[in-house]
Design a protein that fits this description.
430 residues; alpha+beta; five-stranded antiparallel sheet; three-stranded mixed sheet; 16 helices; MobA/MobL protein domain-containing protein
């Protein structure tokens, strides 16, 4: 057993909704992921994807304790054509990457274990299909061409795409419940009844923010992983992958967390769909692809990426990062640093400094002795103070100063008014 762990950053798991308002069909999605031809018995619409290749394994799971004689096509016909009239979202579809370090047999085991756990948790059915990488033949041919002619292209992304086996999940919006004796003996059969099951209420945990009127009394706890559907799908499937890697003595580990949640300062990239990759292969420029190229160049200069991602680490350090302990340490250190003051606090500090400056100036002026403004008087006082035997004079009071200024003003002669010039000559014609 190795004492090293490699943290991989290629984990991906996305969830989308299947909505009536967008013209989506759950039968069409099942036909696509299984590469089959399915027919809607009610509308007569045919969904034919039988020419599609690259399907490795498919499966269909019902909740434990419910067995049905319906085929997968009949079951989803029943779901699509008998869903509640007020229901817009009729299913959820997700796609997740599978670890290339494991053979296809182990990948199938991971998916089947996850499906069993999911049906236990949510009480509904789930279908899956494992696919090879999209456009696998074209990508392999391109890689062989690069290697054969030694073309100046980066083939690392192409190699990863070739190994990109992935799994599709399709999940109905509602619970699948067993029929009771009362349901079997009912005179009026409801349209939600199947052969051994019935369509139940919407699973409230699928959409914890916006949910139907029948479940408003029991709101889910968003902080509880078991009641947060998106978090459950991403985290639990990642845990299943890591458990399988550990059983097979592999040192790689995947994480559903972002770099920020791991406590690493690394530039993040954005997901590129198959459409973007195909257009880039045709020589077109895509904004998402160009952005990711810039981010990947930044990553090559960032110490956290070079030291912690895709490199062997001591097991203790690797699990410390994966469990979020590094982030906790970083937050603790940040809390010990002086926090920047708000604008209100900065303004209050500036006002206090101004008030302190005013007080200091007032104190200095109060302690400062009076100095006469007249230069001659200054000179006389200076001579008196420097002459031998001179006695120090007392400082002049304010009343004395006022009296002295009045006398000085009275002694000054008043200016005489000058006679105005006679300007009659200005108007003389001579």
């Amino acid at each position: 057993m190795s004492d090293k762990i490699v943290i991989r950053n290629q984990y991906s798991h996305r969830v989308s909704t299947v909505k009536k308002s967008n013209g989506h069909s759950i039968l069409r999605i099942i036909a696509y992921i299984n590469a089959r031809k399915l027919l809607n018995n009610l509308t007569g619409n045919e969904h034919n994807f039988s020419k599609k290749s690259g399907v490795i394994e498919t499966g269909f799971f019902m909740p434990h304790g419910i067995k049905t004689n319906m085929s997968e096509e009949q079951f989803y016909n029943h779901i699509e054509n008998n869903s509640h009239a007020s229901t817009n979202i009729i299913a959820y579809s997700s796609i997740a990457a599978l670890p290339p370090e494991l053979p296809p047999e182990e990948q199938v085991k991971i998916v089947e274990e996850f499906c069993n756990m999911f049906t236990d948790q949510y009480g509904t059915s789930i279908s899956f299909a494992i696919h090879e990488a999209d456009n696998l033949k074209h990508k392999k041919a391109r890689l062989e061409e690069i290697e054969k002619y030694n073309l100046p292209e980066d083939d690392e992304d192409l190699r990863l795409q070739i190994q990109n086996n992935h799994v599709h999940f399709v999940i109905p919006y509602c619970k699948i419940e067993p029929m009771t004796d009362q349901d079997f003996n009912a005179k009026r059969k409801k349209k939600s009844f199947g052969d051994t099951f019935k369509i139940g209420n919407q699973v409230k945990d699928f959409n914890p923010i916006k949910y139907g009127s029948e479940i408003k009394k029991d709101k889910p706890d968003l902080m509880n992983l078991e009641q947060n559907f998106l978090q459950f799908m991403r985290e639990k499937f990642c845990v299943s992958i890591n458990n399988s890697l550990e059983k097979n003595n592999r040192i790689e580990r995947y994480t559903h967390k972002s770099y920020k949640d791991l406590g690493l300062q690394i530039s993040a990239t954005v997901h590129e769909g198959e459409m973007v990759k195909s257009r880039v292969a045709q020589g077109k420029k895509m904004d998402v692809h160009e952005y990711n190229k810039q981010q990947k160049l930044k990553q090559q200069t960032e110490s956290d990426y070079l030291n912690f991602i895709n490199v062997p680490l001591p097991k203790e350090l690797a699990y410390k990062i994966l469990n979020g302990e590094k982030l906790a340490e970083k937050e603790l250190l940040d809390s010990l640093k002086p926090q920047p003051k708000s604008e209100l606090e900065q303004a209050q500090d500036l006002l206090d400094q101004i008030n302190n400056a005013h007080q200091l100036i007032d104190n200095k002026l109060a302690d400062h002795e009076y100095e006469p403004l007249d230069l001659r008087e200054k000179l006389d006082r200076l001579k008196e103070s420097t002459s031998p035997g001179a006695t120090p004079t007392e400082p002049e009071t304010l009343s004395q100063k006022l009296e002295r200024l009045k006398q000085k003003q009275a002694e000054q002669p008043k200016p005489k008014a000058e006679p105005k010039d006679d300007n009659d000559n200005d108007y003389s014609p001579f």
